[in-house]
Amino acid sequence: MKMTRRRDSELVRVFRYIKPRRTAYLSGLIGCSLADASVPIVMALVLRLVLDAITEGDMKAVVTTGLLFAAIIAVLMAITPAVHYGFAKTVKRTMAELRETVYGHIEKLPVAYYENTHSGDSISRINNDVAVVENVYAGEIRIVLTVVSTGLYSAALMFWPDWRFASAMIALGCLSTYINSRYAGPIRRISEEIQRSAARQLERLGDLVAGTQMVRVYQMFDRMVQKFREENRLWARLSIRRTFMSSMLNGTNYLLLWINNGGAFIVGAIMIFYGEMTLGTLIALILLLEEVTNMFRHSGALWANLQASLAGAARVFELLDREPEPRRYPSPAGEGAAGDPACAIEIRDASFEYGGGERVIDGLNLKVPRGQVVALVGPSGGGKSTVLKLLIGLYPLLRGEILIEGRRLTDMDLEELRSKIAYVSQDAYLFDGTIEENIRYGKPDATFEEIVEAARAAHAHDFILEQPDGYDTVVGERGGRLSGGQKQRIAIARALLKNAPILLVDEATSALDSDSEHAVQQGLRRLMKGKTTIAVAHRPSTIRQADVICVVDKGRIVEQGTHGELLAAGGLYARLHGDRTEHHAV
Ligand code: ADP
């Protein structure tokens, strides 16, 4: 019962999306249903007239009926395609909007969602599940309406020649509806399982595609295929079970159909024999009865299908119901004192955990005056990248405060915060598209000259010109067609173009060849000029460029100073530096 109520509300929600096109949708729906319903009813009535005319030898009536039939068909031929077209247009546009809504919502979800949810799951929801919603608009509801209006109309017409005959037949129809409705629940549950399994298959495929290099290096083919096979077989088993249940349902329905028709035939023949019915009437009644039983039979099956489609809708709504990233974060510290505007970035006693209960940032303090370059160094897992993520506002703090140019982060919209920041990530993420588009993300309204200028400054211009289509070269998914150093220089050009006052750099740990390394360094140096920079630094050259080096360990800054000072202090930095030089020597 509870489940049914939930589904009902999903039905209401599905129709909320059609609301702006309510009139077009409803007229299309009614138009399609009436046009489709007219054909069998007209057929039955015409057949009755023709057969009776033939039995009575009235040729004139036969011709008149034939002409009437032709006229009606001509009208239907003109109307039916037009209403179907109008209806389909309304539905397709609504579907396009729904897909955009889902896409737009996924984009606004907090970063934590992406980290906890497999990309395949989101893809499956926007692909498979949204597509299933279309069945509700254009499939089941329209068919229900067609079938029900044909059925009711036929039932009314059946009462007209003989009410007893009609009542008996309709009672049989009710029985078949009851039987059909018994199948609805199990079919819905199995459909939900099938949708979930389809989503998991996409996840497997996503892993294979995204991790293709790892899959090769670690020879994971067999294990990946095995995982996919298990999921795929489960999907097949479930689909076969659903087919089995539908077949059982269809079989039962055929049996009921024959009982109905056979009964009608016998009763009709007896009535004709006693002169209570004409042959034309009996044939017309049997045809109309077919429509009435169709209504009973299909309304049950359609109810089951509708449930299956609503299972898809439920997965879409589950995603839409997730809270998007807020416009700004609430302050964990309540009212706090304003900071020094000359200080570009200030982190006060910040604490943060990802959700596992482990303090990743634990009472961290940092002050970065305008124009200064700070290098974050320290053991892996110490929390350096997390500091950058917190500064971009990807997560709210658990405790403490971040101030940007003297203003609390919690007093500004995330949009404003992010407009002040340029970010060069470790993997220098590129979107599939051209090189020019990838640089342009830094400033959407940039002129081509500005893009070239940024590329030059990032030491990217020369290699871009060497590409087959220059700036119009398509970089491939995640920039797969470019080398690591080239991707980084494009990312630097993008950040240069943004020209934001604060720069965050998460340096790649993997080394580049020395030419690339040099070019990237040059680009970075240019990028940092005049900006306040926090860089998670791995390269000695970046570390040397920094005004202050902060050693981050276990979520706090444990040492702070210049290279010389920190070496002299003989602490963690000196030890790490020792390791590194030793490592390099080897
Ligand atoms: P660093 O950059 O110093 O290597 P990170 O900031 O990447 O360190 O990570 C700090 C700690 O936070 C690590 O223990 C890491 O496992 C954990 N961590 C990083 N990202 C996440 C995440 N998205 N979800 C949960 N834990 C994370």
Structure description:
- The chain is α/β, with parallel strands linked by helices and 586 residues long.
- It is 66% helix and 10% strand.
- The chain contains 19 helices and ten strands.
- It has helices at 2-16, 22-56, 59-108, 111-116, 119-159, 163-210, 212-217, 221-273, 279-320, 384-391, 414-419, 435-440, 448-457, 461-466, 484-498, 514-528, 540-545, 563-569, 572-585; strands spanning 343-353, 359-369, 373-377, 399-404, 407-408, 421-424, 502-506, 532-536, 548-553, 556-561.
- The strands form two sheets. A six-stranded mixed sheet has the order 6-7-8-3-9-10, sandwiched between helices.
- α16 links the parallel β7 (502-506) and β8 (532-536).
- α2 runs antiparallel to α9 and α15 (484-498) packs parallel to α16.
- The protein is elongated and about 120 Å long.
- The chain starts with a helix and ends with a helix.
- The model has no long low-confidence stretch (mean pLDDT 84).
Provide tags for this entry.
single chain; 586 residues; alpha/beta; 4-stranded antiparallel sheet; 19 helices; binds adenosine-5'-diphosphate
Write a brief caption for the model:
Helix content is 66%, strand content 10%.
* Average pLDDT score: 84
N/C terminus separation = 71 Å
Q: Strand content of the residues, in percent?
A: 5-15%
- The coarse overall form would be elongated
**If you compute it from the alpha carbons, what radius of gyration comes out, rounded to the nearest whole angstrom?**
35 Å
Q: Kindly state the percentage of residues in helix.
A: 55-70%
